């Protein structure tokens, strides 16, 4: 999980002026870590207005206890740490990705970046963290949010093909089950995960999917089907 500290520490390291809502200077281990996780910051973050707008809060650019509670709930849902309610860059980047996904609507290939002359093809847009299946220009499934490779383990871009399928694959590298695995590039695969699609910093290179979406891809794709990956994951 990505720790969103940086400017948050600098801006909230001193007393915050709200009893019971200060964040400790040091995010240590043991009791200190537990205290930090349970705390809520009164500090105004650099993306305060954008985050307030996303959450449907009054947009005044000033942190309030209600703002902090709403931000912290979002952070906890998606594994952004510390979940202290600070409107920092990682929190806003996650929200901005969600907004871009919503804007895609039912026309994710409007820009024509994914080939339309291949017949059935699974498209992966790393920039918007979206995937869909199309047949020519016809949208067959999606678009759906995905979780792709983290910095240093990026999902590789380019034209690929599904070359191996495993309904219940066991990863010998990460020691986890990878349901509905469909491999398309040197160990990188579509597969289901229990994590949030927005859980930072990302996967080990695979295209993580919600279980229902991974199952749908399993039923739609076969060995030899085309896959096209393009763009760049935010934060990599």
UniProtKB/TrEMBL annotation:
One Pfam family named in its UniProt record: YkuD
Keyword field: Cell shape, Cell wall biogenesis/degradation, Peptidoglycan synthesis, Signal, Transferase
Active-site residues, Swiss-Prot/TrEMBL: 191 (proton donor/acceptor), 206 (nucleophile)
Entry GO MF terms: peptidoglycan L,D-transpeptidase activity; transferase activity
UniProt cross-references to InterPro entries, sorted A to Z: LD-transpeptidase, LD_TPept_cat_dom, PGBD-like_sf, PGBDSf, Transpep_catalytic_dom
GO CC terms, sorted: extracellular region
Pathway: Cell wall biogenesis; peptidoglycan biosynthesis
Start and end residues of each L,D-TPase catalytic domain: 119-230
Gene3D superfamilies: L,D-transpeptidase catalytic domain-like, PGBD-like superfamily/PGBD
GO biological process, one term: regulation of cell shape
Domain of life: Bacteria
Annotated signal sequence range: 1-36
Listed name of the protein: L,D-TPase catalytic domain-containing protein
Organism: Streptomyces fradiae ATCC 10745 = DSM 40063
